[in-house]
Amino acid sequence: MSTVDGLAGPAAVAEAELQAERRAPRRRRAGGAGSRRRARWAGWWFALPALVMYVVFELYPIVTAVQYSFYDWDGINLSTPVGLDNYVRVFTEPQLLSSIVHAFILVIFFSVVPVLLALVIASIVREIRSAVAGGLARTLLFLPQIIPGAAAAIAWTWMYAPDGAVNQGLRAFGLDALARPWLGDFTWALPAVGIIGTWLATGLCTLLLMSGIGKIDTSLYEAAQLDGANRMQQFRNVTLPGLRQEIGVCVTITIIAALASFDVVYMSTQGGPGYSTQVPGVQVYQLAFTENRIGQSSAVAVVLSLIVLAVILPLQRLFRER
Amino acid sequence: MPSASQSPRSTTRRAFVAAVGALGVGALAACSAPGGSAGVSSAEAVPSAVSTTLGSQAVTLELYDGQGLKPLDDALIAAFTKKHPTVTITPTYDPDNVTTQNQPRQLASPTPPDLVRVISVTAGTKNNLLTNLDKYAEAYGWDALPASQLAQFRAENGVAGSGSLYAKASGFTMTGLYYNKALATKVGMSTPPTTLAELTGYMDKAKAQGLTPMVVHNKEGGGVFPFQLLLNTLMGPEKVSQWVFNAPDATIDDPAGLEAATTVMQWQKAGYFPESVNAVDATAADALFASNKGLFFPWGNWDAGNLDTTMPNQVGFFPFPAAKDGASPAAMSDAATAFGIPAKSAHKDAAAAFLNFLSSDEARQIAVDAGFMPSGTSEQQAPTIKDGSVLADVTTAFATVSEAGGQVPFVQNATAGINNRAWNPESQLLYGGRETPEQFVKNVQAKYEEELGR
Question: How far apart are CA B354 and CA A242, in angstroms?
Fold first, then answer.
C-alpha cells in the first residue's frame, strides 16, 4: 500500500483514506446487518486471549470446585458421590463452624479498625502543609503494603515471642503483668493475629482515602469554615460524604482479605493454639493438601465464596453513589 | 437510531450468553466423576521371577525423593553406581513437604520412577501400585534384619505392620532424650536414668535449681513427643505401632493412653516444661537448650549435628527410660527414606539391587555420616563415628532399641490429617490446661476413627 496511483508517503495514505471513505457507504448500503455484526464481533477477538485465560484459570476451576464438593475424593483414586454430605459437615462440625466465626472476628481487625484509623490519619495528613513531612508520612504509611502478608506474619511472630519486642516493650513500661506469649495464648492469639492484619491494611486504606480527600472541592471546606463549622463538623459534613466511594472500596477489599485470610494466619499460628485461630482459608488448604480430602475442601471453599458474596454485595449497594 | 440504543443491551446479553456457554463447557468437561482408576494388574505388582545378578546391559534407574535427603541419596547413588558401573541412577528431588502430595501421583503415573520414596505403604498398595518385595527379601536374605526395621514397610489388606514387604529404608531416625552433661552433674545424675521414677526425680531437682527440666516446644506440635515417649513404654511398642498402622480396634483411649496423658499434664503442672510451651517453636527450643538452662530435650537424631556444633562435647543422649521394671526400651524411629519399586517399573531387578545395597557396610557408613541411623544387623561392622560426639550416643541408643524390637512409628503418621486435625490442636489444649487427659485421648481417638471411616 506504499503507492496508490503513483502517489507516495503521507499523500498516499490520505488518498487511501479518501478512497476507503468513498467505498464505505457503498459497502454499508450493500452489506447492511452483516457488516455491523462483523464490526461488533471484532471487539471479541481483542478480548479473546484474556477470555481464554479467564475461562481456563477462573471459571473452569470454580466449576470443578463446585463439582468436587459433591464427591468424596482423595485427589488420585476413584471418587464416590456423597450428595450434600460435605456441605452438611461444614455446618455441623464444630471446628469448621468456629473457623467461620473467627473469620468474622477478623473483619473487625482487618477492616473496621483500619478504615476508622485511616479516616483519622488521612484527615490529619491532609492538614500537613510541608511537602517533605507529607511525603514521609505517606511513605511510612504505605510501607506495610509492599511487604507480603507471609513475611509480615513471620516478623510479627518474632515480636510476639515470649522475649520479643512486644513483651520487652511492656516490661520496659512496668507492665510485666500484661506480658504473655501472645500467639500461644488461647484468649489473645486471635486478636494478636488480627493486629497483624490491621498493620497490613491501614496503609492502603489511608492512601486511598487521602487521594479521595484530594478530590474533594476545597471550596466546600472554605464554605463550611465561613459557616463557622469546626474541624469535627467539617469532617462529618464534608470529608465523610465526599469519601463515600473510597470508603466503599476500602471496606470491600479489607473484608474480603479478612474472610479469605490465609497467609497471615498460616504463617503465624497455623490455626493454633488449640483451634483458637482456625479460619476457613487455612482449613481449605489443610483439607486439600495435607489430608487429601478434596471434596470436603472444595465444599468449604464454595461456602467461603458464598459468604464473601453475601457480605460484599449488600455493601456494594450501600456504598454506591446516589 | 434504534440500533445505537439496542447495541449495549445486546452486548451485555451476548456477554452473558458467552459466560454461560463457558460455564457449560466447563461443566461438560468436568461432568465425569473426578479421579481415574489408578489400578495396576496384580501380576505386575508381584514379580514371578527375580534375579539378584545384574546383567551386562546398561540400565538407567530413576529415583524420586525429598530435597532434604539429597546429600544422603547422592552419596548412596555414587557408591552404588561405582560398584555397579552398568547402572546409572537419575535422581529427582521435590521439596520434602511436597513429596507427601506427590508420592501417590508418582506411583499412579503411567511412567513412574523406578525407586520412589514411600510415605504411606497402605496408600501404595491400595491399587497394586507398589511391587511386592517378598521374593527379593528371600533371595537377598533381608529377613536377617531386625524385624522392627522392616515391620513399618509391610502391609496386608490395607493395614501396615505385617504381611508382604513393600519398601526398604536407607537409614532411620531415632528419638529419645538429649541431656546437658554439665547440668546433669549439678542434679547428681552420673548415668542416664533407666526408670521413669529416676527421670522424674532429676526433673524435680532441676526445677528446684531454677532450670527448665524438659525443653518441650508445642507451637507446631512438638508436645506430642513426651506423650508418645511415655506411651511407647506404658502401652508397649507393639500396640502403639498397631495404632499407627490402623489395625482394626486399635485405640489410645485406654488406661495406658490415659496414664501417658495424665503424666504429661502432671509434668506440666509441676513446671517441668518451659513457661509458654505452646508459643515455643523448634528454633526457640534449640536456643533455650543451648543457653544451658534446660536439662532434658526430647527430640531426634536430626538435631545431633546441630548440637555437636553449637554445644560440642556438652550433650549426651539416651533412650527414654522404661515406665515399668523389665520393660525393654522403645522409641519413635522411622525411615530416613523408605524406597519402594513402583509396579510399572521396567527395571525391578536393578532397583532391588539398590535396595539391597542400602543395608551394606558401605551404605551404613554413608547413613551415619549424614546423621541417620544405619539399617542392618548388629553383626555387621559398626560405622565409625567421632568419639564423644552426641551422634555416637544416638547410634548406640538406636542399636539397643532396634535389637529389642522397640522401633515405633510416629503417632503423627497414623492418618494423613491426624497431625493437623488432632495432635497439634489437642496437645496445645492439654498443655494449656484447657482439656483433661481423658478428653485428650478421647478426642484424638474420635478424630482417628472419623478419618478412617470407622
Answer: 74
CB neighbour class for B151 (10 Å; exposed up to 12, middle 13-18, buried from 19): buried
Q: Name every chain A residue with its beta carbon within 8 A of the beta carbon of B282.
A: none
Distance from CA of B397 to the nearest CA of A (A): 32
Q: What is the pLDDT of residue A88?
A: 93
ipTM of the shown complex: 0.77
Cβ-proximal residues to B43 (8 Å cutoff; 6+ apart), any chain: none
Divide the 322 residues of chain A into consecutive groups of 10 and give the mean pLDDT of each group: 41 49 48 65 89 94 94 85 92 88 95 94 81 83 86 92 90 90 92 94 90 89 90 89 92 94 93 92 90 91 95 89 61
Q: How far apart are CA A71 and CA A314, in angstroms?
A: 32
| Minimal-distance CA residue of chain B relative to A59 | B23
Mind listing the pLDDT tens digit for each residue in B35-77?
765 556 777 788 888 888 888 889 999 999 998 899 999 999 9
Question: For residue B53, how many C-alpha atoms fall within 13 Å in the half-sphere facing its CB?
Answer: 2
Say what the pTM is.
0.82
- Tell if the CB–CB gap between A78 and B31 is shorter than 8 Å: no
Contact yes or no for B136/B167 (Cβ under 8 A): no
Round to whole Å and give the CA distance between B134 and A235. Answer: 81
Measured between alpha carbons, how far is residue B178 from residues A145, B287, B427 in Å? 44, 14, 22
* Number of residues assigned to chain A: 322
Give residue B209's identity as a one-letter amino acid code: Q
Pick A274's closest partner by Cβ from B26, B277, B428.
Answer: B428
Tell me the nearest-neighbour CA distance from B303 into chain A, angstroms. 22
Identify any residues that bridge with B315 across adjacent strands, giving them in sequence order: B180
pLDDT digits (tens, 9 = 90+) for B345-387: 999 999 999 999 999 999 999 999 998 999 988 888 888 888 8
Give B160's strand partners.
Answer: B155
Q: Which residues contact A233 (CB under 8 A, 6 or more apart)?
A: A224
Identify any residues that bridge with B340 across adjacent strands, giving them in sequence order: B116
Question: Residues 40 to 69 of A: which have CB under 8 A from any B CB?
Answer: 40, 51, 55, 59-60, 62-64, 67-68
Beta strands in B215-345 (DSSP E): 294-300, 315-318, 331-332, 338-340
Q: Is B98 on the interface with A (CB under 8 A)?
A: no
CB nearest to A181's CB, from B18, B126, B278: B278
A162 in contact with chain B, both atoms CB, cutoff 8 A: yes
Q: Work out the average pLDDT over B185-189.
A: 95
Of B295, B296, B209, B226, give the one whose Cα is nearest residue B267. Answer: B226
Identity of the residue in A67, A77, A81 whose CB atom sits nearest the CB atom of B30: A67
Chain A 274-293, residues with CB within 8 Å of chain B CB atoms? 274-275, 278, 286-287, 289-293
Q: Residue B3: is its pLDDT beyond 50?
A: no
CA distances from A98 to A90, A101, A252, B424 (A): 10, 5, 23, 17
How would you write B184-202 as a 3-class SS string? HHHCCCCCCCCEHHHHHHH
Q: Got the DSSP string for B311-333?
A: STTTEEEEPPPBSSTTPPP-EE-
Give the C-alpha separation, B406 to B240, whole Å: 10
Distances, alpha carbon B18 to alpha carbons A212, B10, B216, in Å: 36, 12, 59
> What does the pLDDT read at residue B39?
59
CA distance B435 to chain A (A): 10
**Cα–Cα distance between B305 and B311 in angstroms, integer?**
10
| Mean pLDDT across chain B | 88
